[in-house]
Amino acid sequence: MALAELIIRAIDWFYIRPVAAVLPRQVFRYAVCGGVTYILFDPVCYFLFYNFIVAHRYVDLGFVVVSPHIAAMILVFPFTFFVGFWLNRYVAFRRSPIGAGTQLLRYLLSVAGSVLLTYAGLKFFVEVCGVWPTPAKMVTTLLTTVYSFLAAKYFTFRHAEKPE
C-alpha cells in the first residue's frame, strides 16, 4: 500500500460524526493535511531553524541584511513547500485531472501569495506589535489558511468540469 493510501486511511478514520455532517471529505482531508503541514511541521521546523540554525542572528547576504525571523522563514520554505504539495496532490485533491507539472507551477504561484502574506504578517506582528517570532508565525499561518484553501480548490488542483 502506498504512503498516500495509508495517510488517507488514517485521516478518514477520524472522518466521523459530527465532522462528517458538517465538512465534505475533501475539506476535511485538506484541513488535516494543512494542519499537519502548517500548524505542526512548519512551526516545529521554524522553531528549530530560528533557534539552532539561524540562532537569533541577523544574516548578512552582502546586499541586504535579513532579520533572524525572516531568515528562518526563508530556510524553512522548501521543506514546507514540498511536503504541502505532496499531501495536497496525493491526499486532499487526488482526483484533479491537471498534470503534475502544471499543478506544481500553480502551487508555486499560490504559495507565493501565501509567502507574501506570511512575510507581511511576520513584519507586522514581530516588528510593529512586538510579538515573539514563533507565535507570530503561527498566527500569520492561520491567517493565510483561507486564502490557501481557496487557491488550492479553485486554481491549483481544481476539477476540470470542461475540457481546458
From TrEMBL:
Repeat recorded as keyword: no
Entry keyword set: Membrane, Transmembrane, Transmembrane helix
GO cellular component: membrane
Major localization class: membrane
Limits of the GtrA/DPMS transmembrane domain: 30-157
UniProt KW Glycoprotein keyword: no
InterPro entries linked: GtrA_DPMS_TM (IPR007267)
GO biological process, one term: polysaccharide biosynthetic process
Protein name from the UniProt record: GtrA-like protein
Protein source organism: Alistipes shahii WAL 8301
Taxonomic lineage of the native organism: Bacteria, Pseudomonadati, Bacteroidota, Bacteroidia, Bacteroidales
